């Protein structure tokens, strides 16, 4: 399981389906960023960041679930309309929102103790969303399943996520405009969120590689 080959394969899919992914996810990302801007304007600079995190948890399943279903359908030679993908996302929303909330809380708790525990938790929970959407697992079972899947595979998963998210987080920090320029801030946040969705494509590719391994084989590359 070479991280470079995983990233290459995921990028090939993402770049060749860029327009379809943008049509599916960008409107909701723009809506989320607009709501974040309105929330910040309403509550002011001293607002508790928990409000913004909660808003993100509520919106995230609405574009992450359709993307996961889209990647799975295209990877298996099927072409589902956007309305079907969004409808499926709405049905999954209660469970996905609960999962996103639990994952976010666990990661933030780890980060509040030390940075490394937060990173460890984020990597160990990386497959939970895919297990919930693709295999219909309830939130707690999906969290447990992700822990099981990352046993012996921590470093390949970490390398793939770090290779995607660290450059994008740096780009987000470098390009972040002032909140006073609301329109530019909304556009930048939507674009940044869209690029970070590439991580889901990478994780899907990783999951498919794990599924093809013989039972009991432990990948420690």
Topology diagram in text:
Layout: H1 3-16, H2 18-43, H3 49-75, H4 82-113, H5 115-124, H6 128-135, H7 139-149, H8 154-175, H9 182-196, H10 198-211
Summarize the structure.
The chain is mainly alpha-helical and 221 residues long. It is built from ten helices and no strands. The protein has helices spanning 3-16, 18-43, 49-75, 82-113, 115-124, 128-135, 139-149, 154-175, 182-196, 198-211.
Overall description:
81% of the residues lie in helices and 0% in strands. The protein has 221 residues and is an all-alpha fold. The longest helix has 32 residues, at 82-113. The model has no long low-confidence stretch (mean pLDDT 90).
Entry keywords:
single chain, 221 residues
Low-confidence stretches: none
Looking at the structure, what is the overall shape? globular
Helical proportion?
A: over 70%
Rg for CA atoms = 17 Å
- Number of separate strands: 0
Structural class: mainly alpha
Give a quick account of the main beta sheet: strands, pairing sense, barrel closure: none
Number of DSSP helices?
10
CA(first)-CA(last) distance: 6 Å
Element string (H = helix, E = strand):
HHHHHHHHHH
| Beta strand % | under 5%
Overall pLDDT metric: 90
């Amino acid at each position: 399981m070479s991280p470079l080959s995983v990233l290459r394969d995921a990028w090939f899919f993402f770049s060749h389906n860029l327009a379809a992914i943008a049509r599916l996810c960008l409107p909701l990302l723009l809506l989320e960023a607009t709501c974040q801007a309105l929330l910040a304007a309403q509550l002011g600079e001293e607002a508790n960041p928990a409000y913004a995190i909660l808003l993100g948890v509520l919106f995230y399943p609405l574009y992450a679930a359709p993307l996961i279903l889209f990647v799975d359908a295209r990877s298996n030679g099927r072409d589902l309309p956007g309305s079907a993908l969004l409808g499926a996302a709405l049905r999954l929303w209660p469970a996905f929102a609960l999962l996103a909330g639990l994952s976010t809380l666990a990661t933030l708790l780890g980060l509040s103790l030390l940075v490394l525990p937060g990173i460890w938790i984020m990597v160990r929970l990386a497959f939970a969303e895919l297990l919930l959407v693709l295999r219909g697992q309830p939130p707690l079972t999906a969290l447990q399943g992700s822990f099981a899947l990352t046993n012996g595979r921590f470093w390949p998963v970490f390398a793939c996520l770090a290779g995607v998210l660290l450059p994008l987080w740096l780009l987000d920090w470098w390009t972040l405009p002032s909140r006073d320029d609301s329109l530019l801030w909304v556009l930048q946040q939507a674009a940044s969120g869209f690029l970070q969705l590439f991580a889901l494509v990478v994780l899907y590719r990783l999951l498919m590689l794990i599924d093809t391994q013989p039972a009991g084989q432990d990948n420690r590359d």
